[in-house]
Amino acid sequence: MGWFRSILTAGMALGMAACASPPPPPPAPPPFPMLRSTGAWAFDYDAPTRTATATLRSPQGALLVEMSCEAPRGPILVRDWTFALAPGPVSLGLALGSAEIVAAGVAPASPAGSSGARFALSPLDMAVLDLFEGQTVAVLGPVSGHDWGPDAARQLIAVANACAPRGS
Description:
Elements: H1 2-19, E1 34-36, E2 40-46, E3 51-57, E4 63-70, E5 76-80, E6 88-96, E7 99-107, E8 117-121, H2 123-126, E9 137-140, E10 145-147, H3 152-163
Parallel strand pairs: 1-10
Antiparallel strand pairs: 2-3, 3-4, 4-5, 5-8, 6-7, 6-9, 9-10
């Protein structure tokens, strides 16, 4: 009976040691500053033009992000005003959870200063959006990023669904 108690004690000690191991380290932060928006999203569908638009505004009312798409072909046109970029072409990534869609974008010239970044999501990109409902959505620029905050994935999917013909 003593040997059973020794095995039981050893098993309990191993189990407690496994439970006491340190948790995994948190994910590494991006290598650049990441702005996280806390504003409110709004969605609109204009039936005569068949255009779906979702906008994100800051708590002060400033326009931060606009996504729009004209049915039935797309693409989704995205503009993020939070980027301060020199005018010209720019490589951007749209992070959806842990996945990333790379997009060729442009930072348009503007007499009023920074006009953000513009890019398009193709219908092929839009086909996978339903997989990312509830995930984080962020635009990753060359030296900074912008997390669009809560509800962004739902808004992106709503614009895609209003634009892309669905059916058999």
